[in-house]
Amino acid sequence: MIDDDLELCQELDEILKDEGYLVESVADGSLGKTALISNPYDLVIIDYRMPSFNGVEVLKFIKEKGLKIKVFLISGRPFVEKLLKEEGLSSLVTSVLNKPFCIKTLLDNIKRL
After folding, report:
1. How far is CA 28 from the centre of its chain?
2. At CB < 8 A and 24+ separation, what contacts does 4-12 make?
3. pLDDT one-digit tens code per residue, 33-68
4. Bridge pairing between strands 70-75 and 43-47
Protein backbone atom coordinates (compact mmCIF):
# COMPACT_ATOMS: atom_id res chain seq x y z
CA MET A 1 0.00 0.00 0.00
CA ILE A 2 1.26 3.46 -0.87
CA ASP A 3 -0.44 6.04 1.34
CA ASP A 4 0.68 8.87 3.61
CA ASP A 5 -2.17 8.13 6.06
CA LEU A 6 -0.24 5.94 8.50
CA GLU A 7 -3.32 5.08 10.54
CA LEU A 8 -5.15 3.80 7.45
CA CYS A 9 -2.08 1.81 6.40
CA GLN A 10 -1.82 0.17 9.82
CA GLU A 11 -5.51 -0.72 9.89
CA LEU A 12 -5.53 -2.14 6.36
CA ASP A 13 -2.28 -4.00 7.01
CA GLU A 14 -3.88 -5.77 9.98
CA ILE A 15 -7.09 -6.56 8.11
CA LEU A 16 -5.28 -7.89 5.03
CA LYS A 17 -2.81 -9.93 7.10
CA ASP A 18 -5.75 -11.47 8.98
CA GLU A 19 -7.13 -12.47 5.56
CA GLY A 20 -3.83 -14.23 4.78
CA TYR A 21 -2.21 -11.65 2.50
CA LEU A 22 1.42 -10.58 2.64
CA VAL A 23 1.40 -6.81 3.07
CA GLU A 24 3.90 -3.99 2.86
CA SER A 25 3.11 -0.30 3.22
CA VAL A 26 5.10 2.81 2.43
CA ALA A 27 4.30 6.39 3.38
CA ASP A 28 4.69 8.23 0.06
CA GLY A 29 4.93 7.87 -3.68
CA SER A 30 8.70 8.23 -3.79
CA LEU A 31 9.15 5.27 -1.45
CA GLY A 32 6.43 3.49 -3.39
CA LYS A 33 8.38 3.78 -6.63
CA THR A 34 11.41 2.21 -4.98
CA ALA A 35 9.29 -0.61 -3.53
CA LEU A 36 7.61 -1.29 -6.89
CA ILE A 37 10.98 -1.75 -8.59
CA SER A 38 12.36 -3.93 -5.79
CA ASN A 39 9.42 -6.30 -5.27
CA PRO A 40 7.12 -8.31 -7.56
CA TYR A 41 3.75 -7.30 -6.11
CA ASP A 42 0.48 -8.76 -7.37
CA LEU A 43 -1.54 -5.75 -6.23
CA VAL A 44 -0.83 -2.23 -5.04
CA ILE A 45 -3.28 0.08 -3.32
CA ILE A 46 -2.35 3.69 -4.02
CA ASP A 47 -3.73 6.85 -2.49
CA TYR A 48 -4.46 9.58 -5.01
CA ARG A 49 -3.22 12.47 -2.89
CA MET A 50 0.22 12.23 -1.26
CA PRO A 51 3.31 14.34 -0.80
CA SER A 52 6.39 13.77 -2.94
CA PHE A 53 4.73 11.80 -5.77
CA ASN A 54 0.95 11.55 -5.86
CA GLY A 55 -1.02 8.54 -7.04
CA VAL A 56 -1.22 9.71 -10.66
CA GLU A 57 2.56 10.18 -10.75
CA VAL A 58 3.02 6.66 -9.36
CA LEU A 59 0.67 5.34 -12.07
CA LYS A 60 2.73 7.15 -14.73
CA PHE A 61 5.83 5.48 -13.28
CA ILE A 62 4.14 2.05 -13.44
CA LYS A 63 3.20 2.71 -17.08
CA GLU A 64 6.67 4.00 -17.97
CA LYS A 65 8.37 0.95 -16.45
CA GLY A 66 5.86 -1.48 -17.98
CA LEU A 67 5.10 -3.03 -14.60
CA LYS A 68 2.40 -5.70 -14.71
CA ILE A 69 0.54 -5.09 -11.48
CA LYS A 70 -3.07 -4.71 -10.43
CA VAL A 71 -3.81 -1.25 -9.00
CA PHE A 72 -6.53 -0.06 -6.68
CA LEU A 73 -6.62 3.72 -6.39
CA ILE A 74 -8.22 5.25 -3.32
CA SER A 75 -9.37 8.84 -3.36
CA GLY A 76 -11.56 11.35 -1.64
CA ARG A 77 -11.85 13.29 -4.90
CA PRO A 78 -14.97 12.82 -7.04
CA PHE A 79 -13.18 13.65 -10.30
CA VAL A 80 -10.38 11.09 -10.12
CA GLU A 81 -11.82 8.71 -12.76
CA LYS A 82 -12.13 11.61 -15.23
CA LEU A 83 -8.54 12.63 -14.50
CA LEU A 84 -7.31 9.05 -15.07
CA LYS A 85 -9.05 9.01 -18.44
CA GLU A 86 -7.58 12.38 -19.43
CA GLU A 87 -4.08 11.21 -18.44
CA GLY A 88 -4.46 7.92 -20.35
CA LEU A 89 -4.11 5.91 -17.15
CA SER A 90 -7.56 4.33 -16.82
CA SER A 91 -6.38 0.99 -18.18
CA LEU A 92 -3.82 0.69 -15.38
CA VAL A 93 -6.39 0.95 -12.60
CA THR A 94 -8.34 -2.16 -11.72
CA SER A 95 -10.59 -0.39 -9.22
CA VAL A 96 -11.17 3.11 -7.85
CA LEU A 97 -12.31 3.19 -4.24
CA ASN A 98 -13.79 6.46 -3.03
CA LYS A 99 -13.10 7.48 0.55
CA PRO A 100 -14.59 6.53 2.83
CA PHE A 101 -14.70 3.06 1.36
CA CYS A 102 -16.18 -0.14 2.71
CA ILE A 103 -13.62 -2.73 3.86
CA LYS A 104 -15.89 -5.52 2.64
CA THR A 105 -15.91 -3.97 -0.85
CA LEU A 106 -12.12 -3.78 -0.81
CA LEU A 107 -11.79 -7.41 0.29
CA ASP A 108 -14.36 -8.55 -2.30
CA ASN A 109 -12.45 -6.73 -5.04
CA ILE A 110 -9.17 -8.31 -3.94
CA LYS A 111 -10.69 -11.79 -3.82
CA ARG A 112 -12.18 -11.28 -7.28
CA LEU A 113 -8.68 -10.78 -8.69
Report:
1. 11
2. 4/28, 4/47, 4/50, 4/51, 5/47, 12/45, 12/106
3. 999 999 989 999 999 988 778 899 999 999 999 999
4. parallel
In whole angstroms, what is the distance from residue 83 CA to residue 39 CA?
A: 28
Total count of residues recorded for the chain:
113
Does residue 81 lie in a domain region? yes
Cα(44)–Cα(6) distance, integer angstroms: 16
Q: How many domains in the chain?
A: 1
- Torsion, Cα 41 17 84 5, to 10 degrees, reads -120
Q: The pTM is what? A: 0.90
Q: What is the CATH number of the domain that holds 12?
A: 3.40.50.2300
Q: Is 109 within a domain?
A: no
Domain around 22: 6-104
